Amino acid sequence: MKISNYNFYYPLESNNQETLIYNSRTNALALIENDNLNLLKRQGQGQVQIEDSELQSNLLRGGFIVADDLNELDLIRLSLLKSRFSDQFLGLTIAPTMDCNFNCIYCYEKGRQDSYMSAQVQQALYNFTEDRIDKAKHFSITWYGGEPLLALDTIEELSRQFIRLCAEQQVSYSAGIVTNGYQLTTETAKRLQSAKVSMAQITLDGSPEIHDQRRPLASGQGSFATILNNIQACAEFIDITIRINTDQENAGKIDSLLDILESSNLKDKVNVYLGFVDTINDCYLDDKCLSRKQSSHLNYLEEKKLSERCFICTSAKYPKLYGNFCGADNSSSYVVDPDGFLYKCWNDIGLPECAIGNVLDLTNRYNNQLFSNYMLYMPTDDPLCKKCKLLPICMGGCPHLRVNDRQDQCSEYKYNLESYIRDYAKALSSHSGN
């Protein structure tokens, strides 16, 4: 037996008798007595062999030790390929329109055509889906834009067709929507509920004076008051997640928004999380954006604060294992714009030069090179990633950042894994009464 390459050791702060041991390949976490830890490390150095069969069995079960002939990188590569090319899941991000009623200061879709999806494209999209759903066990849709609620009729019509198709094929179905929330009235929420849209992500960037400066209507008027009223009215009909787009300008002003949400009796009705403004497509000044290190640190602190104020359910953020990273590097996931163009990443939507196909003409592959860049990258072969102990919970990071030669695609766990692991262990200990 040999020690795994993916072990992390964090000595307990409360005593000097035990150590937390975490394995990023198996996502296992354990508490090990320091005498046994020293024995484990000595075995790794070839000095001794662990004779305690129960200890060795537990270490093996957690992946903290592995067989001498096991190549862990091969297991990670196999998991990636299995996930990337699985046909058990079909996912579509659909923009029924690129039109928008907002003029956000950091919008990465500025200048793109404000088109709406025609009946011809809708039919072609249905045919595209029907041809690919036969092997799937689950079909998931995210309605996107532009502002998707400007094309609510299209959402309802396509939803009816997709729901019927899933029923016929005995495939489970789920849907959510990314919306600015301005038109999410009670009536609209009920219509979405009937279309089996169960979740809405809505952005609020801070208190009214902050949000209205960053996310005004196209007319220049503020949007905060209407959005907040809509959230209060619709939270009983649809699960709402509030995203706070964060940068240097509002990073220190998040508490004011949390105070408003709490006074509006929303703290136990909505989830809240931080997103981070990026310079996608040169849409925003780079010096206004937070670095990956800065955003990781802020995210950790704000998640703790949100947890303490009961805006989220979990008391600590535990890592998750990745196969492929996201839809951009998954063979069964597509982004579709109103004109029928297909993309791998929603950051590319509305840019025909980034399209990999079109539902109206599937014989033309369009940007083959970009498609290959998304789908064929192997972090297990990357000179830096393959040596990184965080690889199984990162898998090379954001594909869009990588294909655009950005150097900040690493997981936030590069900066705060220990903090999250310690917090999670404390929560477990508190829950068990120890």
Q: Which key features would you list for this structure?
A:
17% strand; globular; 14 strands; nine-stranded mixed sheet; TIM Barrel; 35% helix; 434 residues; alpha/beta; 2 domains; three-stranded antiparallel sheet
Q: Can I get a quick summary?
A:
By secondary structure, this protein is an alpha/beta fold.
Task: Explain what the structure shows.
The protein folds into two domains: 2-79 and 413-432, no CATH class; 88-410, Aldolase class I (TIM Barrel, Alpha-Beta Barrel), CATH 3.20.20.70. Helix content is 35%, strand content 17%. A nine-stranded mixed β-sheet has the order 11-10-9-8-7-6-12-13-14. The chain has a three-stranded antiparallel β-sheet with strand order 2-3-4. The chain has helices spanning 34-44, 53-61, 72-84, 119-130, 152-169, 186-194, 208-214, 224-234, 254-263, 292-308, 368-376, 399-403, 413-432; strands at residues 2-3, 7-11, 18-23, 28-33, 65-66, 89-94, 138-143, 172-179, 197-203, 239-246, 270-276, 333-336, 341-343, 357-358. By secondary structure, it is α/β, with parallel strands linked by helices. The chain is globular, with a radius of gyration of 24 Å. It is built from 13 helices and 14 strands. The mean pLDDT is 92.
Secondary-structure map:
Blueprint: E1 2-3, E2 7-11, E3 18-23, E4 28-33, H1 34-44, H2 53-61, E5 65-66, H3 72-84, E6 89-94, H4 119-130, E7 138-143, H5 152-169, E8 172-179, H6 186-194, E9 197-203, H7 208-214, H8 224-234, E10 239-246, H9 254-263, E11 270-276, H10 292-308, E12 333-336, E13 341-343, E14 357-358, H11 368-376, H12 399-403, H13 413-432
Parallel strand pairs: 6-7, 6-12, 7-8, 8-9, 9-10, 10-11
Antiparallel strand pairs: 1-5, 2-3, 3-4, 12-13, 13-14
